[in-house]
Design brief:
Blueprint lengths: L5 E6 L7 E7 L2 E7 L5 E5 L13 E3 L2 E3 L6 E3 L15 E2 L1 E4 L2 E5 L1
Antiparallel strand pairs: 1-10, 2-3, 3-4, 4-8, 5-6, 6-7, 9-10
């Protein structure tokens, strides 16, 4: 998990349900996901397998499936689901009202 300054990303309604919005930060892309029950997570927009864009994957529960090779990544931890191994960097997220902030 990264630590740093809280950055205002967008309103919750600006992230599609079961989708993501990409935030550019220091040359890296951060995918900010919204689940069906309005939980919000932020992880590096890069699958640990071969770098696929996780923001373009399918969200189910608290996981996203990489669109390239089908790896499932836990949004809360960034960990690949077994039997796959690897981790995408995770960023802390908070909601203030309906405004999404990410610690960068």
């Amino acid at each position: 998990m990264s630590q740093g300054d809280w950055v205002k990303v967008c309103g919750l309604e600006d992230i599609p349900v079961l989708g993501a919005r990409v935030l550019k930060h220091d040359g890296a892309d951060v995918a900010v996901f919204r689940t069906a029950v309005d939980r919000v997570f932020a992880i590096e927009d890069r699958c640990p397998h071969r770098g696929g864009p996780l923001s373009q994957g399918i969200v189910a529960g608290d996981r996203v499936t990489c669109p390239l090779h089908g790896w499932q990544i836990e949004l809360g931890s960034g960990q690949a689901c077994s039997p796959d191994e690897g981790c995408a960097r995770r960023y802390e997220v908070k909601l203030e009202g309906d405004i999404v902030f990410v610690a960068l």
